[in-house]
Structures are given as structure tokens and as C-alpha cells.
Design goal:
Structural class of chain A: mainly beta
Shape of chain B: globular
Oligomer: heterodimer
Order of helices and strands of chain A: HEEEEEEEEEEEEE
Radius of gyration of chain B: 15 Å
Strand content of chain B: 5-15%
Order of helices and strands of chain B: HHEE
Number of strands of chain B: 2
Chain lengths: ~140, ~70
């Protein structure tokens, strides 16, 4: 005998809407020395974030315009694209990491996901006076289907 | 404007319009102001305003699957 479970569409949207509507979500940039591990849980587990310099502020950039909606059974978490402007030097990063700021489910600053910015793998760089834009996917940051 | 950028803007516009129109989101005044401002920016870019320049990283979307288990 095999049992199964199915979510109601409304809950897919409701669960993260309730959780994220009051939350601050930030994205940090890390250099090539940082190694991603799916077992890392909170911001304190991370290493090699860029220092405050050249237009980057240690601690990361907050997502703005967060949306979380459900269409035809697929819920989508999304936000405005992220933009840093390099000034006085270059911004160079290998990975970006997204987290919730604050205590969430009894964890302080829990991690959500990480992007490898160039799968070669290679660094990405914005030189002084130019912007580094993380253009979020047309399908959103992530979906729950 | 790249095809990927255009697709991103069109999908994002649809999402923002949906959120702004949803009466359940009425209490989210701060988010509503952000949505409205971003929607205005997207409309301007689709109408011909300059797209972002510099280094642009096109990110993949993630998926959390609520599969039966």
C-alpha cells in the first residue's frame, strides 16, 4: 500500500506569504574562496563575503518589491532585480547567497539559496563606475509546484 | 534589449499587476508602494527607456517541489 500527500494551492501561496510579508530578505556576495554546502543553515555558517568597499556593503542588499503569488498550482517567489554600483574600485564575486534577516523558525538569519554566478566557474566583475545587476529569472527566484 | 530581458520584464509586470490588484494585499502598504514604483520603471523600459548596462548576470530560477511521498 502506498500513501500520498497533496498540497492545496491556496496553502502554497499562504505559507510563504505569511512568513515573508514581514521579513527582510538580503543577498550577499562572496568571493571564490567561499565553498557552498547545502548543509550550511544560517548566515553565520558563511565565509568570504565581500568586505564593505567599492560600492558593496557587508551584510548584503535587501530585496525590494517582494511578490509571492500562486497561479495554476505553482507558487512563485520573486522580487526586483538586484543592482550594485561599483565605485572607487571593482566589485568581484563568485557566488550570491540569499537569506532571511532575523530570527525565523528559531534560527537566526537562515539561508534560502545560493547562486553560482558563472558556472565555468569564474568570477564576475563590475569595474568602477559600472553596475553589477543580478537579473532574476523570468520565472522568478523560485517556485513551489 | 535582449530577449531574456524582455521576457523577464513581461513576466515581472504580470506578477506585479496581479499583486497590486489582489485585495488580500491591500494591507501591505509598503510593499504596494514598491510594486507600483517597480511597475512604473518596467513600463518605461518596455516603452524604450535604457535597459541596465554594465555587468548583468542572468540568474536561473530554483524549484521547491512538493512531491507526493
Amino acid at each position: 500500500m502506498t500513501a500520498s500527500v497533496s498540497f492545496y494551492n491556496n496553502w502554497k501561496a499562504a505559507i510563504n506569504d505569511a512568513a515573508l510579508r514581514a521579513a527582510t530578505v538580503k543577498v550577499t556576495l562572496h568571493n571564490s574562496t567561499y565553498t557552498f554546502a547545502a548543509t550550511q543553515s544560517v548566515y553565520a555558517d558563511l565565509s568570504n563575503e565581500l568586505a564593505t568597499a567599492n560600492g558593496y556593503t557587508n551584510g548584503g542588499l535587501a530585496l525590494s518589491s517582494i511578490t509571492w503569488g500562486q497561479t495554476s498550482g505553482t507558487a512563485t517567489f520573486d522580487a526586483a532585480d538586484l543592482v550594485w554600483t561599483a565605485s572607487g574600485g571593482s566589485i568581484t564575486a563568485r557566488r550570491a547567497v540569499m537569506r532571511v534577516v532575523g530570527t525565523f523558525n528559531s534560527q537566526v538569519d537562515p539561508l534560502i539559496l545560493s547562486w553560482l554566478l558563472d558556472t565555468t566557474p569564474a568570477d564576475v566583475t563590475a569595474t568602477s563606475g559600472n553596475t553589477l545587476t543580478l537579473q532574476l529569472n523570468a520565472s522568478g527566484i523560485y517556485t513551489l509546484a | 534589449m535582449t530577449p531574456e530581458r524582455r521576457e523577464r520584464l513581461l513576466q515581472r509586470r504580470a506578477r506585479l499587476e496581479q499583486h497590486i490588484a489582489d485585495p488580500h494585499n491591500t494591507p501591505l502598504a509598503e510593499r504596494r508602494a514598491e510594486w507600483t514604483a517597480e511597475l512604473k520603471s518596467i513600463e518605461a523600459e518596455l516603452a524604450g527607456a535604457p535597459s541596465p548596462s554594465g555587468t548583468i548576470v542572468e540568474l536561473p530560477a530554483g524549484n521547491l517541489s512538493a512531491k507526493a511521498n
